[in-house]
Each structure stands twice: as C-alpha cells, then as structure tokens.
Amino acid sequence: MNFGETGQGIFISEKAKEKVSLLLNEDGKGNDYFVRVSVVSGGCSGLSYKMDFDNTSKPTDQVFNDKGVKIVTDMKSVLYLFNTMLDYSDGLNGKGFHFVNPNASRTCACGESFSV
Questions:
Q1: 9-36 pLDDT, tens digit each
Q2: C-alpha 104: how far from chain center
Q3: Are the C-beta atoms of 103 and 39 separated by less than 8 Å?
Q4: Rounded distance, CA 93 to CA 40, Å?
Q5: Which of 23, 27, 49, 64 has the fewest Cβ atoms surrounding its Cβ within 10 A?
C-alpha cells in the first residue's frame, strides 16, 4: 500500500527519514532493510512503541512507503498506529525517535507509552 496516494497509513517525517538513512548506512545495512514498528504491552500507560530495522517480512505484515522509506508493522499494531507519524528530535529536551499518534488518548510524561 502506498499511503501517499490514500492519505492513510504510517508516515515518517523528513528528519526521521534522514536519521533512518544515516543509521542504516552506518550499520552497513543494504536496501533490503526496512523500519519495523510495533506496539507491545508495557509502559506506564499500558502500551509501548517498538522500532527496529529488519530485512525479513512476515506473511501478515502491513507494508507502507513514505518518502522512499519502507515501514512495516504487524496486523495487531496497525490498528494502534494508523495515521501515526514517526518523527526524530535532536533538541535539548531529548534526542531520539518518537511517535506522533492521533489514536492515543493518553501518553506518559516520557512519551514512550500510551493508551487508547
């Protein structure tokens, strides 16, 4: 699915795209690697985000492409991540990837867990 055409899916900001490209290059990972995002139980709000680089797809994976970056998630997680933006911050208030999720009704103070 190409959500750039439908306006739906999982998105990546320009800054996160640049950081993903940099990390993949630093680690010597080729074009067959993609960003895998998921939601797991845990955290102070009940659900936490997980992000890894992967090169193995599963039959039930949901695949999205934004700004030339392949983003993959599982069937369960896509329900929580629909229309979420993967962003990157390098500011004084914290450095790293974070998720801007319109589906979250509550997030913890650190922003790493949420509830719906």
A1: 899 999 999 999 999 999 889 889 999 9
A2: 14
A3: no
A4: 25
A5: 27
Token duo for residue 26: 């630093």
Whole-model pTM: value is 0.81
Nearest to 64 by CA among 93, 85, 45: 85
Per-range mean pLDDT, top range of 29-43, 53-67, 94-108: 53-67
Nearest to 90 by CA among 39, 18, 24, 8: 18
| Dist. CA 44–CA 42, nearest whole Å | 7
Q: How far apart are CA 38 and CA 9, in angstroms?
A: 13
What is the domain count for the chain? 1
Q: Which residue range forms the structural domain that includes residue 73?
A: 3-115
Region at 68 (left for phi over 0; alpha for psi -120 to 50; beta for the rest) = left
Q: What is the CATH number of the domain that holds 78?
A: 2.60.300.12
